[in-house]
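W.,

You were right to be curious about this one. When I first looked at the sequence I had no strong expectations either way, so I just let the prediction run and decided to look at it fresh. Below is the sequence, 304 residues in total, followed by the output.
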Amino acid sequence: MRSLVVLLLIAFVASACQAGSITISVGQPTPTSTWTPTPTVDVPATTTAQAQLTATAQAQANATAQARATVTAQAQATTNAQAIASATAQAQATATAQAQATATARAQATNAARAAATATTQALVAAINAMVDAQTARPYTQKEETVAGKPSPYVTTFYPELDMKNLAAEVEFFNPADARANLWDFGFFFRASKLDQYRLVIRSDKIWYLLLVDTNLPDAVDGKTITQGIVPNLNLAADGTNKYRLVVKDTNGFLFVNDQYIGAMDVSARMLSGQFYIGTGMAKNANFPGLKLHFKNLNVKWLQ
């Protein structure tokens, strides 16, 4: 009996030392228990991973927010740029329209002024022609003449011995030289005396001027310039001619070249009657070797 108990105890101990399951059957079947290994949880590692995931998610959220902000800023910048471009284009269009309007207004004003000046000139010329045509006195005429040039400082002149205060004179003058080689001039002398005279000079450089030569003046040699201007339609051809016309009435004088009105002059400084004649070589550098005074169709009329 004791031996049996010992054997059972040994058998029980041996079974307990095995890694498998233990089955004890004493009359009735005993349930079997199975052992399953449970994984070990690394708490620090899990916390780190979760922190990394959280950081990654936060970074992604930040990146998304930054991207959205960038897109929004770009959209706003695009909108602003479009607004600025639109405003600039509008301003440029407005400025262009204003400039065009100003240019149009100026052009209209200029055209109106030119039209008024043209109308005034036409009225003046018509009045001058009417005044000259109203005089019935027979004019002095000279069909054609050539006068040999005189050496400097003398002026080459044709002297018809006409004494008058108011006059209308016309003459066609032959150019004495090529204007590119020699400066030349042509002139009217009127209300002239031994002491003073008016000289109306037209030069080949297209300048005209009125001188009052007075021996009582400091500049008596060259005379005092009363007025001057430009002759735009002067014919400068070496074999060409120019038609000159001078009208003098009381305090006013008027110059025409080639049937075109050129300008007016004040002749109020000398109101006495005097000699009338024509000449060339009046400027010092317009008196050159071979110069001569050649003209035709000189007509001089007395005016009341």
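Here's what jumped out at me. Residues 16-27 have pLDDT under 50 and may be disordered. And, maybe more interesting for your project: The radius of gyration is 60 Å.

Coffee later to discuss?

I.
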